C-alpha cells in the first residue's frame, strides 16, 4: 500500500532531502525512494548517509551527498550533484539542523553555534530553495518544497539560536509560498511534535529536566 493517496510519478519526480542521515529527514528520504522517487540523501555525516541508504527499500534510487550545509559553497556543490545525477529536483525537503544542546542557553550560546544554527536552517534553506525554484521556473515544471520548522518558532525554548532560526524559517516559508506559488511550486512547513531522533543533546540534570518538559511540547 502506498503512503500517499496520489503516488509520485517516478518518471517525472525527483527529490532532495537534507538531514537525510537521521531522524525525520531519513524517514522522509527512505519513504520517497520507497515510492520509486530518485532522491538525493544529503547530510554532513557520510556514515549516516550510507546507513540510511543501505536501510532503504530501493537503495539503487538514492544519490548520496556529504557536506556541511553551513557553507554556501557546499550548498552549491549539492545543487551541482543533484543536477548532474538527477537532472533537476521537483521535491525539496529541508530537515538538516545542527544538534540542540541544553547547555547552549541564552546566557551561554556562543557566536559560532549561533551562526551555524542559522546558516544550516535558514541560509542553506533559502539558498537551496531559491536555486531549485529558479530551475523549475525556467523549465516550467511544478514542484513542492517542505521545511521542518518547530513549535519553538512561536514559543521560547531557552535555546535562542534554535528558536530564532525556526521563527525566521517559518516566515521564509510564507515568503517563498507567496512568490513561488504562482509558478506552481508549493511551499509548506512541517511542524512536528516531539519525535525521538538525534537532535537534542542533554547537558546538566537541570537541562535534562527542562529538555524532558520541552520534549513533551515539541522540539
Ligand atoms: N525531532 C523532533 O522532535 C523535532 C521537533 C520539531 C522540529 N524538528 C526539526 O525537524 C528536523 C529534523 O529533526 P530530527 O530530530 O530528525 O534531527 P536529527 O538531529 O535526528 O537529524 C538531523 C540531521 O541533520 C544533519 N546535519 C546537521 N548539521 C548539518 C550540516 N551542517 N550539514 C548537513 N547536515 C547536517 C545531521 O547529521 C542529522 O543527520 C530539524 O530541522 C528539527 O529542528 C524536530
Structure description:
The protein is about 45% helix and about 15% strand. The chain has about 220 residues and is of the alpha/beta class. The chain has a single domain, classed as 3-Layer(aba) Sandwich (Rossmann fold). β6, α5 and β7 form a beta-alpha-beta unit. The longest helix is centred in the middle third of the chain and has 29 residues. The two termini are about 30 Å apart. The structure holds nicotinamide-adenine-dinucleotide (NAD).
CATH topology: Rossmann fold
Report the CATH architecture.
3-Layer(aba) Sandwich
Mean pLDDT: 91
CATH superfamily: NAD(P)-binding Rossmann-like Domain
Cofactors, ions and other ligands in the entry = nicotinamide-adenine-dinucleotide
The N- to C-terminal Cα distance equals 31 Å
What is the approximate shape? globular
Number of helices: 6
Spatial ordering of strands, largest sheet: 3-2-1-4-6-7
The overall number of domains is: 1
Rg is: 17 Å
CATH class placement? Alpha Beta
Reported for the largest beta sheet, the result is: 6 strands, parallel
Total number of beta strands: 8
- Helix coverage percent: 40-55%
> How much of the residues is beta strand, in percent?
15-25%
Q: Low-confidence segments, ≥5 residues, pLDDT <50?
A: 204-217
Keywords: Oxidoreductase
GO molecular function: 3-oxoacyl-[acyl-carrier-protein] reductase (NADPH) activity
Family: Belongs to the short-chain dehydrogenases/reductases (SDR) family.
Organism: Bradyrhizobium ottawaense
Amino acid at each position: 500500500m502506498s503512503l500517499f493517496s496520489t503516488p509520485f510519478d517516478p518518471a517525472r519526480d525527483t527529490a532532495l532531502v537534507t538531514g537525510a542521515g537521521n531522524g525525520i529527514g531519513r524517514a522522509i528520504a527512505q519513504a520517497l525512494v520507497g515510492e520509486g522517487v530518485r532522491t538525493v540523501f544529503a547530510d554532513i555525516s557520510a556514515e549516516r548517509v550510507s546507513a540510511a541508504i543501505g536501510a532503504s527499500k530501493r537503495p539503487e534510487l538514492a544519490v548520496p551527498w556529504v557536506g556541511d550545509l553551513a557553507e554556501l559553497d557546499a550548498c552549491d556543490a549539492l545543487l551541482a550533484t543533484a543536477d548532474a545525477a538527477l537532472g533537476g529536483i521537483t521535491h525539496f525537503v529541508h530537515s538538516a539542523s545542527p544538534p540542540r544542546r541544553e547547555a547552549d542557553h541564552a546566557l551561554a550560546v556562543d557566536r559560532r553555534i549561533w551562526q551555524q544554527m542559522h546558516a544550516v536552517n535558514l541560509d542553506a534553506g533559502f539558498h537551496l530553495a531559491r536555486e531549485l525554484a529558479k530551475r523549475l521556473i525556467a523549465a516550467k515544471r511544478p514542484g513542492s518544497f517542505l521545511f521542518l520548522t518547530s513549535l519553538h518558532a512561536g514559543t521560547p525554548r531557552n535555546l535562542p539560536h534554535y528558536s530564532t532560526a525556526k521563527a525566521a524559517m517559518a516566515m521564509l516559508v510564507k515568503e517563498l509560498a507567496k512568490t513561488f506559488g504562482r509558478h506552481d511550486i508549493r511551499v509548506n512547513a512541517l511542524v512536528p511534535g516531539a519525535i525521538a531522533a538525534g537532535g537534542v543533546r542533554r547537558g546538566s540534570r537541570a537541562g535534562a529536566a527542562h529538555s524532558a518538559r520541552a520534549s513533551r511540547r515539541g522540539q
